[in-house]
């Protein structure tokens, strides 16, 4: 109603004379109606929910350039209302005004049950699981890497072809993928990705490289191609292991590598294990002391592989015969190399030269003394040892019988 008409109506009503008894007449003040203008729209229903949340969690352009807000703007929660219809649930009903009109034609719709949908829960779960947009392809456990969702340990294929030269039999593995920063005069902190990868053909030819780039894919491609350009030829003993035990180091990292018989496997750090797979080493034991920096481990291990000496080279350098004793041959001596000159062999050496001591460079692996468990001196453990006394050599006897059958 217009305010002017309302004011005139009230004034006219007040001026109208009414004949009432004098005692009962009490004049009343005019009644004023307050009409407040209201809007059904506000800031919260003008914009969709995504834009409102973006205004709360977003970072300015200057903040993005400086590396702020890495995890913002990500949807971590699922829309639990998706796939559900008002009025429909576990028990389907026709609800007039909710999921159906109140009047259809000349008929009044009544509340009535519907047929039960047995696939409803399954369809809603499938619809919710499909939310989130891009999903990573499920990988084979062999190609998944060290920790499943991370890049280190994962294969990224052979290096790109250079002209007519193709790396068909090569495989590249990522060893390290991290974010590094560099300060720029006009941009401030600039973020880049650093990738360390190793490539090899599994037959003694391998190389490694570190590359940096603003994008992850670019850094992976650059590192892979650089590793293919820096290949190193590594000699393998029996095409499966190293020639001899050796000690190597880089920085604060020390590595002791030991030659092992066929079937032993790779018992070593996961970075060394990945390198051995692309190089072609199948049997090795390695012990790391000091720093476990990945780049230092890779450099130290490659230095040790390149410094290997053949048996003949060692025999020529020491003027001594290289003799090997193996448990597999019941300790029978097997001559591996004979020196070219026999001057030193005519005279007995002043000291016993140990092959391991010579190849390890007079280094000794640190062996920590094991701490005895708390139950060693208890009564129950003493009784257990007494009961197990009769079976003390059973495993060795069974193995001996299997070997000599």
From TrEMBL:
Ligase among keywords: no
Q: Supply the PROSITE patterns for this chain.
A: RIBOSOMAL_S5 (PS00585), S5_DSRBD (PS50881)
Transmembrane annotation, as ranges: none
Tell me the GO BP annotations in alphabetical order.
translation
The record ties this protein, via InterPro entries, to: Ribosomal_Su5_D2-typ_SF (IPR020568), Ribosomal_uS5 (IPR000851), Ribosomal_uS5_C (IPR005324), Ribosomal_uS5_N (IPR013810), Ribosomal_uS5_N_CS (IPR018192), Ribosomal_uS5m_N (IPR048584), Ribsml_uS5_D2-typ_fold_subgr (IPR014721)
Q: Any idea which UniProt keywords this protein has?
A: Mitochondrion, Ribonucleoprotein, Ribosomal protein
Ranges where the S5 DRBM domain occurs: 188-234
Family per record: Belongs to the universal ribosomal protein uS5 family.
What's the protein here called? Answer: Small ribosomal subunit protein uS5m
């Amino acid at each position: 109603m217009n305010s002017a008409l309302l004011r005139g109506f009230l004034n006219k009503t007040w001026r109208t004379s009414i004949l009432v008894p004098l005692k009962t007449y009490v004049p009343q003040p005019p009644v004023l109606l307050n009409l407040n203008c209201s809007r059904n729209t506000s800031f919260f229903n003008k914009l969709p929910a995504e834009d409102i949340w973006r205004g709360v969690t977003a970072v300015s352009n200057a903040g993005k350039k400086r590396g702020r807000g890495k995890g913002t703007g990500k949807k971590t929660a699922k829309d639990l209302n998706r796939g559900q219809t008002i009025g429909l649930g576990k028990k389907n009903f026709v609800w007039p005004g909710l999921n159906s009109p109140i009047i259809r034609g000349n008929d009044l719709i009544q509340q009535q049950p519907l047929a039960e949908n047995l696939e409803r829960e399954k369809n809603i779960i499938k619809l919710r699981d499909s939310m989130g947009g891009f999903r990573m392809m499920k990988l084979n456990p062999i190609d998944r890497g060290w920790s499943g969702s991370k890049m280190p340990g994962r294969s990224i294929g052979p290096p790109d072809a250079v002209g007519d030269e193709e790396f068909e039999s090569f495989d590249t593995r990522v060893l390290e993928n991290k974010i590094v920063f560099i300060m720029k005069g006009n941009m401030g902190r600039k973020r880049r990705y650093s990738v360390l990868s190793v490539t090899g053909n599994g037959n003694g030819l391998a190389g490694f490289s570190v590359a940096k780039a603003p994008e992850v894919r670019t850094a992976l491609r650059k590192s892979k191609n650089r590793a293919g350009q820096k290949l190193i030829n590594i000699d393998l003993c029996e095409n499966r292991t190293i020639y001899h035990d050796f000690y190597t180091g880089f920085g604060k990292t020390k590595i002791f590598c030991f030659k092992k018989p066929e079937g032993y496997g790779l018992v070593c750090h996961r970075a060394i294990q990945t390198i051995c797979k692309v190089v072609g080493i199948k049997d090795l034991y390695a012990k790391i002391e000091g720093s476990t920096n990945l780049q230092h481990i890779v450099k130290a291990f490659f230095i040790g592989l390149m410094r290997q000496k053949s048996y003949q080279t060692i025999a020529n350098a020491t003027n001594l015969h290289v003799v090997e004793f193996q448990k597999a041959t019941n300790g029978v001596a097997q001559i591996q190399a004979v020196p070219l000159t026999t001057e030193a062999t005519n005279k007995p050496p002043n000291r016993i030269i140990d092959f391991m001591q010579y190849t390890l460079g007079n280094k000794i692996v640190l062996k920590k003394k094991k701490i005895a468990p708390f139950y060693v001196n208890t009564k129950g453990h003493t009784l257990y040892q007494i009961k197990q006394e009769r079976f003390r050599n059973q495993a060795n006897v069974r193995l001996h019988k299997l070997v000599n059958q």
